[in-house]
Design goal:
Chain lengths: 149, 149
DNA sequence: ACTTGACTTAAAGTTAACTTTAACTTGTAT
DNA sequence: ATACAAGTTAAAGTTAACTTTAAGTCAAGT
């Protein structure tokens, strides 16, 4: 199967311009060209799904390019690529943890506003707490030091 | 307890400039000023922890400002704020789901490179698959239509 | 032969979220 | 009295990730 830039862009939910930009940044390795036009094949499609994944985890384009370059160098860079993957795995875990903490905060706020709406005023709840117990716990980080301590 | 801009910046892990920028954008409601200098109090600190939370879920500054403005208007905006919170809760859930999918892909790649490193070459694994089963499943989205269908 | 539509590149423009700079004020220490 | 450290504003600069524009190529249809 092969696709035009317009088709693959539609599949990926991005614009052809963005794909051209990615290509110009070296994010799309070895895309075939026929009469000067890009022809996307299954291998490109597979890679685009991984690229999409890397974008979802907020990997900067520079870092993705780094990975692509390593992959193009072949077997001598296997260890480096492995390290890069591990590093990014850690980053994903961290992001998930942060999001879960924030989710708790927003669930608290959902309760907060539901209660306030029922009562017609925020006063009913704001005396209890305007912040969730989760965030309330650490008022000041343990590692915080005032200047010159 | 009250803090200078330098102190609170250190606690929050950002620079004083960023705090001033947030203030100029209306993200810090009613920060006290003494001799023209900002004095941060416990209520500001609490709000900064929520703000930090909102930044972590990638809420754009415009959206955060919108929330702050609603909160400043008082009880008449309770329902609007509730809706905004629900909307953001959905967004968090979506982000967590995306990250979990990507985590699976990276776990696959971890295995992929570990196996390749042991064998000394990528050839051993790339014939099996260069992409995880999770991403492999949907080659083309079900909702994809070629032009003119 | 000519128009049309989809592509191409190179370069300039945009947007968000800061960051830096310049010029100025103020409280504290010598 | 003076110097210094830490704060202030307004405005300009930066960076990442696109997006738009301008000018041109190319194959297919009339």
């Amino acid at each position: 199967m092969s696709y035009s830039i317009k088709e693959i862009a539609k599949i990926m939910g991005i614009t052809p311009s963005t794909l051209r930009y990615y290509d110009s940044e070296g994010l799309l390795p070895d895309v075939k060209k026929v009469n000067g036009r890009r022809v996307f094949e299954d291998k490109d499609f597979k890679w685009l799904r991984v690229l999409n994944c890397m974008k979802n985890i907020n990997m900067p384009i520079k870092k993705i390019k780094e990975y692509v370059k390593l992959a193009q160098k072949g077997d001598t860079t296997l260890q480096e690529r492995y390290n890069l993957i591990l590093e990014q795995k850690e980053s994903i875990q961290k992001q998930i943890n942060e999001l879960n903490t924030c989710l708790k905060e927003f669930e608290f706020k959902e309760w907060y506003y539901k209660t306030a709406i029922e009562a017609g005023t925020e006063k009913v709840v704001e005396n209890i707490s305007s912040i969730s117990p989760t965030l309330e716990i650490d008022k000041i980080p343990k590692n915080y030091k005032k200047e010159g301590m």
